[in-house]
Amino acid sequence: MSDLTRILHIEDDRSIQAVARVALETLGGFQVLSCSGGQEALDKILDFAPHFILLDVMMPDMDGPQTLERLRAVVDLEQIPVAFMTAKVQPNEIAHYLSLGARDVIIKPFDPMQLAQQVRTIWQRAQAPHT
């Protein structure tokens, strides 16, 4: 198992991008690549080779679930855990996101002080042997 060092963050809101980047880089010690949409992420994912993907649900052009489906065709998402970030947190919505293959859902607004630990926890669960 490799260490978690590189996180791909796909988010169209620049202010959320900035807060997440500071939280993950400064507090978490991660290397973060921020992309403003699904196509940009698809263009950059192979060169960046992320260990983890944080994916906004609501984005123009290509939403989170569409982006996830496109990413799945490019990289092995069994090896790269994906967590959706969204303010839509009804239980049926969360169940739907998990059914699409996300490992977890991080609720917006997220706590910048907790974000790195949330990501680490999801990563550790994803690395555990499947039983």
SSE order and pairing:
Blueprint: E1 6-10, H1 14-27, E2 31-35, H2 38-48, E3 52-56, H3 64-72, E4 82-86, H4 91-99, E5 104-107, H5 112-127
* Largest β sheet strand count, sense and barrel closure: 5 strands, parallel
Number of helices: 5
- The fraction of residues in strands falls at 15-25%
Q: State the total count of DSSP E strands.
A: 5
Largest sheet, order of strands side by side? 2-1-3-4-5
| Overall pLDDT confidence | 95
Give helix and strand order, one letter per element, not per position: EHEHEHEHEH
- Sheet/helix structural class: alpha/beta
Give the CA-based shape: globular
**Share of helical residues:** 40-55%
Q: What is the alpha-carbon Rg in Å? A: 13 Å
* Intertermini distance: 17 Å
pLDDT < 50 stretches: none
Would you kindly provide a written description of the structure presented here, covering whatever features stand out?
There is one protein chain. The protein is of the alpha/beta class and 131 residues long. Helices cover 45% and strands 18% of the residues. Helix 1 (14-27) crosses helix 5 (112-127) and helix 2 runs parallel beside helix 3. It is globular. It starts with 5 loop residues before the first strand and ends with a helix.
TL;DR?
By secondary structure, the chain is α/β, with parallel strands linked by helices. The protein has 5 helices and 5 strands. It is globular, with a radius of gyration of 13 Å.
